[in-house]
Amino acid sequence: MRNPSNFVVPWMNDVKPYPVDDVNLAWDHPEFRRMFLNENPYPPSEAVLRAIFDAAKNGNRYPGDGPKLRVEIAKKYQLDPDNVFMGNGSSEIIEMVMRVFVAPGDEVIIPNPTFSLFESRATIIGGKVIKVDQREDLQYDTEAILNAITPRTKVIIICSPNNPTGDFIPDEDLIRILKNGIPTLVDEAYLEYHPEHHSKAPLIRDYQNAIISHTFSKAFGLAGIRIGFCLADKEVIRYFKKMQMPWSVSLMAIAAASAAWNDGDVLNQKTRDTNREMEYIYQELSKIDKVKPYYSYGNYILIDVTATGFDPQGVVDSLLKRKVMIKTVKGFKDRKFIRISIGTDEENALCVESLKQILKTRNGL
Ligand SMILES: Cc1ncc(COP(=O)(O)O)c(C=O)c1O
């Protein structure tokens, strides 16, 4: 093959690979504070480690699709185990949604800003992404989403709470969207941080097009282990099963997730600590002149630095010099944002104090 670009499916040439340089840099520098990937700063519990070790003893055997774990998950949501589908992280749920419903040229409605993987997995299969800006106050613009629907719309993405804006879509808005009958992925990756906000999972009983995804990567803190799940109509799940590679979720991932699922105390402790730290960061950043943090129900906080005149990338680079990794959020009107993932107490204090110093050193204008 002389020139691969003549042979690959044409739309692939325009797609950028999902960036991994930052995460590789972080692994090369264990002294860096990783506050850029919305990871959980607390390592897995002893019970989870034991479960992984025990499962690895059967590492010569292929895994099933997690029937026992699916029973437990179904019980929590008062659904049937066949309403539960396990994925290699919730990223694989996103992948299934795109690959099952979207053909080249079909449209996928995605809020802006949101988690960037939605766009990259839609475009890699030739989908046309229709971005719908959030309102100025960073809430969902449901009217604009409804207006963006065309006969070619095959998927609508709703992330709730949304990464990076941190807030939920109101129930009545979600229902207006679901009433269109278009497959709608409701990504609840961060919901476990606020269990007082109920999952939209019960909606799958009334809306066959509702697909509700969850992950063990965030509040449960198993991002490196790779496991997530979705709750959906059984027929939809049958399509996901046709599409998914067999053995996609490892024995160790299923064992780790089962142990974490059954350890409510550990989950509560982790979420309590993160929510307390969210409050601290929000309060402290609110004190900085011209800086606007957006209170968040996830484990990250979006900060509008437009009024400071600082270039967000410059702020990120200055923090990196202090060994703190955060990220910018680009592409929402002409506003300038950074996003901080909540870390340990010590990491958060360092990040906040560094930001105060950086943003006070000079006016960015
Ligand atoms: C909204 C959202 N969904 C899904 C994911 C991916 O999570 P997972 O590790 O389960 O693939 C992320 C990761 O940051 C996310 O922010």
Summary of the model, kept short:
The chain is of the alpha/beta class and 365 residues long.
Write the layout of secondary structure elements.
Blueprint (H helix, E strand, L loop, with lengths): L20 H8 L4 E2 L11 H11 L10 H10 L7 E4 L2 H12 L5 E6 L4 H8 L3 E6 L8 H7 L4 E7 L11 H8 L5 E4 L22 E6 L12 E4 L2 H10 L7 H11 L2 H23 L5 E3 L5 E5 L7 H10 L2 E2 L1 E3 L7 E5 L3 H17 L4
Parallel strand pairs: 1-11, 3-4, 3-5, 5-6, 6-7
Antiparallel strand pairs: 2-8, 7-8, 9-10, 10-13, 12-13
Helix pairs in contact: 2-9, 3-9, 4-5, 10-12
This protein binds pyridoxal-5'-phosphate (PLP).
Question: What is the H/E string?
Answer: HEHHEHEHEHEHEEEHHHEEHEEEH
Count every beta strand, where a strand is a DSSP E run of 2 or more residues: 13
- Roughly what fraction of the amino acids lie in strands? 15-25%
Q: Structural class of the secondary structure composition? A: alpha/beta
Query: Which quaternary structure do these chains form?
Result: single chain
* Main sheet strand line-up: 2-8-7-6-5-3-4
Mean pLDDT across every amino acid position: 96
Largest sheet: 7 strands, mixed
How big is the Rg?
A: 21 Å
The unreliable regions are: none
**Ligand kinds:** pyridoxal-5'-phosphate
C-alpha end-to-end distance = 52 Å
Number of helices: 12
Task: Note the overall shape.
Answer: globular
The amount of helix comes to 25-40%
